[in-house]
Design brief:
The structure is a single chain. The protein is mainly α. The chain has one domain. 82% of the residues lie in helices and 0% in strands. Mean pLDDT is 87; it is low at 1-8.
């Protein structure tokens, strides 16, 4: 295929893809937030803890269920964007691989649901685990389909897909829980939503590429050995990442109670959306780091993205630290008063979670899967060691500290690899981080003036405006945000919507 033909089908711009990736995250966050609030209040700490523990058991296997094929498929598709025939052939091979591994993991977990409940001495856990096992298969395939759209630089299609799935998941879950099925109904509602989403995603991909991905898709330009080799490396990374993300919840369930799991998990599920801006930026930028024959890796775009992601993430920290009690009281209710200390303790993780995906995704698209393996394994070891040491004495706060420290190692390790593998300059990002920290300190002081325990509606609004305003003013004063940056950010939404 000619260079001109490739460019004609090169997908949307970075800004447009980042905008619609962010819109996808916001849509998911809105539905997830509503569903989380509904479930925490309807199920109570113990019931929600059982539901969260079931999701943690399946979450432990979710990222590894595809055998690393999502990341491998995304990389090889991004390297061949514009060559539709090659893309279809790669996806045909990858989808068969993905469906087989995901189904095997889901079925095994479904069968083992009873013994898992016995292991935790929680007979009521078996039903939610079975529902979560079915959800795992649909969620796994949906993640594959959405990541393919991102690799194709078509985040608009991904937006339609995830919003449709989220709406159906909310509807099914609420209906089943209101019917009196408790945590088990919540898990099966999740399964129904993801099953719908996976089927819709397959249909959308087939229509976008003009060829069904079920059946014959032609010989793949990527050999099976090359594909499985990279998928194997990403399988190790994904498995370690999944274990890290769930290990503290599992240890809390083992050492303490499902109520402690609920107190810890509820704020984490609520703050998950705070990582969406950084994740959206990563989803727009990272595919441009692939080794495409007609486009050199866009390292300068990654550098700029890191600065903006740092600024956005640092703004969130003063609110979580200073207003932890009012946030928990407003959103979760008085039964979750213990979650306020968790919210404060987990703030370093929230900050790093807004930056880390830029490193993770960019390195995966660039082909640095093997370089990520030792960092991922070391992170799990640190998280496990700290969790075992801190949770028995500090409880949920110990789990938060463990997560913070291990994730800091994870992000720092990937930054080091990006510096050598991609030639990324780290010093500008570090300077932005220092300026953002100073701005966050001023913002925290402003928020404290309006209160730290209880807030009226006026204090919520006025404090938010004053705190965010002070943050921006300090950044401008310290040159963390230049006039050119302000102009760029102001014009970005309009440019993205136009596709320019």
């Amino acid at each position: 295929m000619s260079v001109q033909a490739r460019r004609a089908d090169a997908g949307d711009t970075i800004s447009r893809n980042a905008l619609f990736a962010f819109a996808s995250q916001l849509g998911t966050a809105a539905f997830t937030g509503v569903l989380t609030i509904f479930l925490t209040r309807e199920l109570g700490p113990a019931g929600f803890g059982t539901f969260a523990l079931a999701l943690s058991v399946t979450g432990l296997l979710l990222r590894s269920a595809g055998g690393g094929s999502t990341q491998a498929a995304a990389r090889f598709v991004a390297e061949r964007i514009g060559d539709t025939r090659s893309v279809i052939a790669v996806l045909g091979m990858a989808l068969r691989y993905r469906a087989l591994t995901a189904s095997a993991v889901g079925l095994s977990l479904f069968v083992l649901a009873g013994p898992i409940g016995d292991l935790y001495n929680q007979p009521d856990l078996a039903g939610p685990v079975r529902g979560a096992a079915l959800a795992l298969v649909g969620q796994d395939l949906l993640a594959f389909e959405r990541n393919v759209f991102l690799a194709l630089r078509r985040a608009t299609a991904g937006f339609k897909l995830v919003v449709s799935e989220s709406a159906m998941e909310l509807a099914f879950s609420v209906a089943l829980v209101l019917a009196g099925t408790g945590a088990t109904g919540a898990a099966f509602g999740r399964a129904a939503g993801y099953g719908f989403g996976a089927a819709l995603g397959l249909l959308m991909l087939s229509r976008a590429l003009g060829h069904s991905l079920i059946g014959r898709t032609g010989p793949s330009p990527v050999s099976r050995r090359e594909f499985t080799g990279y998928a194997g490396a990403m399988f190790i990374v994904a498995s370690a990442s999944a274990l890290f993300s769930q290990i503290d919840v599992l240890l809390l369930g083992a050492f303490l109670t499902t109520t402690a799991v609920g107190v810890y998990s509820a704020p984490l599920r609520l703050v998950a959306f705070l990582g969406y801006p950084g994740l959206a930026i990563a989803q727009g930028v990272a595919p441009r780091l692939a080794r495409h024959p007609d486009e050199p890796p866009r390292v300068e775009a990654l550098s700029r993205a890191l600065a903006y992601a740092t600024i956005v993430s640092a703004l969130m920290i003063p609110f979580l630290v200073v207003w932890a009690e009012p946030i928990v009281e407003l959103v979760l209710g008085p039964k979750y008063a213990g979650s306020a200390s968790v919210l404060r303790a987990i703030s370093p993780y929230v900050l790093l979670n807004g930056i880390g995906p830029l490193f993770f995704a960019s390195l995966s698209y660039a082909g640095a899967g093997r370089q990520r393996i030792p960092i991922s394994i070391a992170t799990v070891v640190v998280a496990a060691a700290l969790g075992l040491a801190l949770i028995p004495t500090l409880g949920t706060v110990g789990a938060a500290i463990s997560t913070d420290a291990a994730y800091a190692l994870y992000v720092a390790g990937h930054a080091y690899v990006a510096r050598g593998f991609l030639g990324l300059a780290i010093r500008p990002a570090a300077a932005t981080a220092l300026r953002s920290a100073a701005a966050a300190a001023v913002c925290a002081a402003v928020l404290a003036v309006f209160g730290v325990h209880e807030l009226s509606a006026v204090e919520w609004i006025a404090g938010t405006i004053a705190g965010a305003g002070s943050y921006v003013l300090v950044l401008v004063a310290t040159r963390g945000l230049s006039t050119a940056d302000m102009r760029f950010l102001r014009r970005l939404p309009a440019r993205a919507l136009r596709g320019g």
